[in-house]
Automatic annotation (TrEMBL):
Record's GO cellular component terms: lysosomal lumen
Keywords: Calcium, Disulfide bond, Glycoprotein, Hydrolase, Lysosome, Metal-binding, Signal, Zymogen
Gene: Ids
Reaction catalyzed: Hydrolysis of the 2-sulfate groups of the L-iduronate 2-sulfate units of dermatan sulfate, heparan sulfate and heparin
Presence of the UniProt keyword DNA repair in the record: no
Summary of the function given for this chain in its UniProt record: Lysosomal enzyme involved in the degradation pathway of dermatan sulfate and heparan sulfate.
Any one GO BP annotation for this protein: carbohydrate derivative catabolic process
Cofactor(s) it depends on: Ca(2+)
Record CDD domains: iduronate-2-sulfatase
Organism field: Illadopsis cleaveri (blackcap illadopsis)
Name of the protein in question: Iduronate 2-sulfatase
Domain Sulfatase N-terminal: 4-380
Entry EC number(s): 3.1.6.13
Pfam families: Sulfatase
């Protein structure tokens, strides 16, 4: 009894997907999942970098509570012994399994992906992962480089494979084992692409002829962007092909043709990912588990593709914080009449045309920190209690709220019911993200400052109508932000500035509107 959970988490995937209205991308398998799912078109990560975001949504706590803003501490030691979402399922009789990149590897998950707390058996990591940053990209001169743009011939790769291919194979194997054992499971599958390097099977380039690839709609640094808000994309500059371009630090733009190549390869990597997801969901069908398994699909954060003259994550803009988020729940989100039918036949992106619309779509602003309570509720487990104001000593609680009540409410029916009065007050839902900086101007470590070097924290609030960001003084010794000491501010009105190019913070009277914020 009870539903299984298949939790698919993708590294650095912004919602460039057909089901999110992208006209260029070929993502038929993810779109097919969306056609049986509740899709959230306004979902946001709590910090646009891997380890802090993952620890946040896996514990259901915000970065100020995990105290992880970089990669160098383990929350159970450094902040509090917080239960994780997989741990909670494990304690409720689930076999919990981790494949690929779920927790960020290294000290931030105790060099063990938080095993044995979170997982029933040691997590699986693909052997090809260790070659991700090797020189495996063939240049025009025939030599091998560690490039950013890296389409490859898979047969020439070490082991003749790539990490995500191995992760799909392992996940499919585990699904078969779970079916045979009739064991209730929580299986997390973490895909690496489209994280850099953009290393993927070269045939996917054929889907995206370069002449169809445009630049970002706003490829310049906005005039009124505070310098503290800018991320100088150091990780990209360090790749061989970008380094060879000798671009000036920090604002020097990449050449247009190279911008197009990055965008082309990002899309190609998304289609390669789509194939992996398609094979995995097809296997779920094949072993007969798609009628009693909840499927969640999301990403740890987005990725800039040249917007605002920026690349990579490391910022508070929508392009870095917004993620795809969809839930397939058998009997709840499925279209009537689909019971017993094959829900997820594999679709080949090279031949499949025509998209499919999401089964249900919500424009409500939601946060990844709400995944834990939401999945608990969908699986019929008791929803973890809301955290008190300070919760360092509380092992099980969540700073998110279950979003299940958004599932069956058709848009525009007025205010939904709200059981948690504290959070209610007719407040419109908002998403909070944050990003640390070492200084007011771009530095070599602006993208990824170590805790001891953080001097400023950018707290960002996103509602349907606006994004409002304050960059305030921050003391890393006692983890306090001083909102009396504002270094810079940003305000973007979504209705007439959807790309967040025109900061009106300084030309808005700071009266009632800012008090409300």
């Amino acid at each position: 009894d009870g539903m299984n959970v298949l939790f698919i988490i993708v590294d650095d995937l912004r919602p460039v997907l057909g089901c999110y209205g992208d006209k260029l991308v070929k993502s038929p398998n993810i779109d097919q999942l969306a056609s049986q799912s509740m899709v959230f078109s306004n979902a946001y990560a709590q910090q646009a970098v891997c380890a802090p975001s993952r620890v946040s949504f896996l514990t259901g706590r915000r970065p100020d509570t995990t105290r992880l803003y970089d990669f160098y501490s383990y929350w159970r030691v450094h902040a509090g012994n917080y239960s994780t979402m997989p741990q909670y399922f494990k304690e409720h009789g689930y076999m919990t399994l981790s494949v690929g990149k779920v927790f960020h590897p290294g000290v931030s998950s105790n060099y063990s992906d938080d095993y044995p707390y979170s997982w029933s058996i040691p997590p699986f990591h693909p052997s090809a992962e260790k070659h991700e940053n090797d020189k495996t990209c063939r240049g025009k001169d025939g030599k091998l480089y560690a490039n950013l743009v890296c389409p490859v011939n898979v047969t020439e790769m070490p082991g003749g494979t790539l990490p995500d291919i191995q992760s799909t194979e392992e996940a499919i194997h585990l699904l078969k084992v779970m079916k045979t054992k009739r064991q209730k499971f929580f299986l997390a599958v973490g895909y690496h692409k489209p994280h850099i390097p953009l290393r993927y099977p070269q045939e996917f380039l054929k889907l995206y002829p370069l002449e169809n690839i445009t630049l970002a709609p706003d490829p310049w640094v906005p005039k009124k962007l505070p310098s503290v808000a800018y991320n100088p994309w150091m990780d990209i500059r360090q790749r061989d092909d970008v380094e060879a371009l000798n671009v000036s630090f920090p604002y020097g733009p990449l050449p247009d043709d190279f911008q197009r190549q990055i965008r082309q390869s990002y899309y190609a990597a998304v289609s390669y990912l789509d194939v992996q997801v398609g094979l995995l969901l097809n296997a779920l069908d094949n072993v007969g588990l798609s009628n009693n398994t909840i499927v969640v699909f999301t990403a740890d954060h987005g990725w800039s593709l040249g917007e605002h003259g920026e690349w990579a994550k490391y910022s508070n803009f929508d392009v870095a914080t917004r993620v795809p988020l969809m839930f397939y729940v058998p009997g709840m989100t499925t279209s009537p009449g689909s019971q017993g039918a094959r829900l997820f036949p594999y679709l080949d992106p090279f031949s499949h045309t025509g998209g499919s619309a999401p089964q249900g779509q919500s424009k409500k602003v939601v946060e990844l920190v709400s995944l834990f309570p939401t999945l608990a509720e969908l699986a019929g487990l008791q929803v973890p209690p809301a955290c008190p104001e300070t919760s360092f000593g509380v092992e099980l609680c969540t700073e998110g709220t279950s979003i299940v009540h958004y599932f069956n409410v058709s848009e525009g029916k007025g205010q939904e019911g709200c059981d948690n009065t504290e959070r209610c007050f007719n407040e419109e839902p908002a998403a909070l993200s944050q990003y640390p900086r070492p200084a007011d101007t771009p530095q070599w470590d602006s993208d990824r400052p170590k805790l001891k070097d953080i001097r400023i924290m950018g707290y960002s609030l996103r509602t349907t109508d606006y994004r409002y960001t304050l960059w305030v003084q921050f003391d890393p010794n006692n983890f306090t932000a001083d909102f009396q000491h504002v270094h810079a501010g940003e305000l973007y009105m979504m209705e007439n500035d959807p790309n967040q190019d025109y900061n009106i913070y300084n030309n808005t009277s700071h009266g009632w509107f800012f008090k409300k914020l």
